[in-house]
C-alpha cells in the first residue's frame, strides 16, 4: 500500500468536512431562515427548488455547503446562527403558527422585529409561563427529547385537598388510563381557601401530564404556570415579554460540544457588552449611572 500523500490527506479532509455539513435540502432551506422544513418540502414538491441548477422532484436529497441551492431561482441567504429567546406565554394563546379555530397564537403576539421562530415544545392554551423560542429546528427537537433529562417545573393551583403522603403515589410514577408516567417531583407550597398551590417537576412532558397526574389525586387544576425548563428560568419576565438568551449562556446550557454541533457561536471579545432590554422593550446600554451623567454634560 502506497503512503498517503499530501494531496490524499487534503482530499480526505474535504470529504470529512463535507460529511460534517451534509443535510437534507429542506433542512438547509429552513436553517437559512426561508421557511419551516415542512414548508420547504412543499416548495420542492411544487418544483420551486433547484440544486446546482437541477430542479428537484423529491425532498430526499442531501446537500453540503459546496452545493448551490436556489428557491424560485434565488440563492439561499447565508445560514443563520441559532438563537434562542425566553418568552412568558400569557394564558389564552395557542402554541401554533396557525389555528383552525381562529384563536390567537403565540407567534401572532410576538414583537414584529423577531425573526421567524419555532417553539421548544408546547404549552396548552390555558397554561402560562416559560416557553422557549428558537430559530433552529435541531435545537428545538433536541431539547424536547425526554432523554435530555431536563426538569420542567410548574407552579400549580388546584381545587381540592391533598396530603403530602398522597403525593407519594405520583412521585414514584403512576399508570393512569393505561399511560405510564415517570417519577415526578411534587410538594405542597401552601393552602389558599379551597385551593392548594403545589410545585411539580416533570421530565417527560407527556400531553397534559401535570393535569392528569393531579386529577388522579382528586384535584382540579385551575392555574398552571411553567417556571423553568432545564436551566432556563422564567424569573421576573413579565407576561408577554420576550428576552433573548445570549450565545454565552446558550453554549453553557447546551454544553460546548453540542453547541458547536448545532452551530451556536460563543461571543467574541470585541464589540463590548451586549445591550439589554429596557422597560418598554427598547434597548439601553449597560453603562453605570455615573457614566450616563457624564455623557449628558
Automatic annotation (TrEMBL):
Keyword Isomerase listed: yes
Stored SUPFAM superfamilies: Alpha-L RNA-binding motif, Pseudouridine synthase
Pfam families noted in UniProt: PseudoU_synth_2, S4
PROSITE patterns, per the entry: PSI_RSU, S4
GO BP annotations, alphabetical order: enzyme-directed rRNA pseudouridine synthesis
Biased composition (Basic residues): 276-297
Recorded GO MF terms: RNA binding; rRNA pseudouridine synthase activity
Top EC class, one word: isomerase
Keyword Isomerase annotated: yes
RNA-binding S4 domain ranges (all copies): 23-82
EC number: 5.4.99.-
Annotated stretches, region: Disordered: 261-297
Keyword set, alphabetical order: Isomerase, RNA-binding
Known catalytic reactions: a uridine in RNA = a pseudouridine in RNA
NCBIfam families: pseudouridine synthase (TIGR00093)
Family in the record: Belongs to the pseudouridine synthase RsuA family.
Protein name: Pseudouridine synthase
Lineage: Bacteria, Pseudomonadati, Pseudomonadota, Alphaproteobacteria, Hyphomicrobiales
